[in-house]
Amino acid sequence: MRGIPFPKLIANFIATVERSGATILRADETSQRPLQLRILGPDNTTFCCIFLWTITPGGGGPAVRPANERRIQLTNVSQFPLRPGMRTIVGGWSDEFGVYAFWDPRRHRNFSSRSPSLQIRADVLEQATRDGIATFLRPSAEGREVVVAVDSPSLLWYIQNGEALHNTDTDTGAQLVHDLVSPAPESEQRIIESSGSENETIRRLELVETMRAFRESRFRPQVLQAYSYCCAVCGCALKLVDAAHIIPVSHPRSTDDIDNGIALCRLHHSAYDNGLLGIRSTHEIILNPSAISRLRDASLLNGLEEFRNALPRIIRVPASREAGPRPENLRTGLEARQWPKHLVV
Ligand SMILES: [Zn+2]
């Protein structure tokens, strides 16, 4: 397997981060590692120094290396810079599995050989395609290292919040992260309490909180990806599209599951949330006569005809059925926004 050239790796990396809603400012137009970027994300701004390679099976074939070993070869680099205020990211893209994996630069201050490589297992990459995230513990020159694999929807989250996952050299790693991707009720507390030492309890608490944030962060990129980053009503992209909750967050039956999400541009998101525009369980788009009459009373009807004429009859839904809106959620979404009962279908 040939390595993908650095400029192409970076172009894909930037496109993935931009699709998740971040804005990227490039410090320079270099085609050499590392690339320095300022990433203005939904949560915060991160200044990153990025080293990226292709993850490959490595040379020599199965006779020399374990069949499930994958690796990045650290070419053309002698040291990873570590500076306060800057996040140094060392990772690779696996074309084979369609996921990224990241190592901990703090554990690789000195390279032991002239052509060093960093490893991960194929089954860990595969697990990240299913769960969105997976970790792997490997020995390194400076203690044991947690390697983190994430899928594209979680790349931005990893860059901005994922560093905490590397902060361990104990054996908690991979299995706990897996258990926390969709934990059974009460299992978070059990995981925190099942440890002996105080440090380990603190570490587990931090891990539980990190993984909670991970699960919450999945909603937006998963919904946007399912709708190809376009508004379900008008089809516009232009990074003007939000992941809207069908059943509003304030409602007791609201969830962050993909079938309670819909991609809507800012205009149609506002119109949906304030009850002017509705989407029936049949996917039909309707306007609310009581909302229109309230707008009339407030002398705010300007633009209604243009707005109405631009609407298609039905919404566009994702190709995959499971990623589409659940009919029951669409009905509850209308009820929660107090639509007249006879219009709720
Ligand atoms: Zn729209």
What's this model, at a glance?
31% of the residues lie in helices and 22% in strands.
Question: How would you sum up this structure, described in words?
Answer:
The chain has about 350 residues and is an alpha+beta fold. The protein has two domains: about 220 residues, no CATH class; about 100 residues, no CATH class. It is about 30% helix and about 20% strand. The chain is built from ten helices and 13 strands. A seven-stranded mixed beta sheet has the order 1-2-3-5-6-9-8. It has a two-stranded antiparallel sheet with strand order 4-7. Strands 10-11 form a two-stranded antiparallel sheet. Helix 5 runs antiparallel to helix 6. The protein is elongated. Bound molecules: zinc ion. Zinc ion binds next to strand 11 and helix 7.
| Ligand types | zinc ion
Number of domains: 2
The end-to-end distance, rounded to whole angstroms, is: 53 Å
> What's the overall geometry?
elongated
**Stretches where pLDDT falls below 50 for ≥5 residues?**
none
> What is the rounded Rg?
23 Å
Mean pLDDT: 91
Report the total helices: 10
Strand order of the largest sheet: 1-2-3-5-6-9-8
Largest sheet: 7 strands, mixed
Structural class: alpha+beta
- Helicity, as a percent range: 25-40%
Secondary-structure element order, N to C: HEEEEEEEHEEHHHHEEHEEHHH
The count of DSSP E runs of length 2 or more, i.e. the number of strands, is 13
